[in-house]
Give the backbone structure.
Amino acid sequence: MALAGELSIQMIDILANLSTITKTGDSPTSNLISSPPSSPGARNLLNIIADLQCISFMGTTPIEHLLCFGLIGCCFRLHYGDEQIGEEYDEALQELEDTLGANGWPRSPQEQAKLQKKHLECLIWISVAGASALELSKSYPAASTVLDNTLKKYPKETSRWNTVEGILRKFLWNDFLAESWQKCWQRAMDRRSKAG
């Protein structure tokens, strides 16, 4: 994506910082994850969330816009672990759900098909990361439509955890996220089987 010119320099910088954080901190209590923004090699996750919100308002490419919200979800999960996200972030979570639940801003069917063909695995990662964060909010129902829509739209790629895990490992990943995301995926699969 970066080589194709689909990501801004700011996004590349954030991805580099988050890559360092996810590789060195396997739990939300890791010192690196909660480090102040001035510490070498790490940015405070809440500051990264604010940066991502700003980038999402700029004229970004469609995939960068959606990636902002997946990364916001990832940062929330890393920062809060399994604790509830405070009400002060309800607006950010609402925007995350609105954007990912509707697969981003309105696009023509041709643009959506092109985005899905080119970035299918990234879209799955974005959905899982976003849905996992929404589960931490007491203001949103546990049954997030974000992941449910993705499971419905891409059954071949999302019906088995081993396949999903293989996709997610291509992006930001660590053992803590893997455990959280697998539980989130399993709850969504359980909802599908009960509804089906």
The first helix runs from residue 9 to 24. Confidence is low (pLDDT under 50) at residues 29-42.
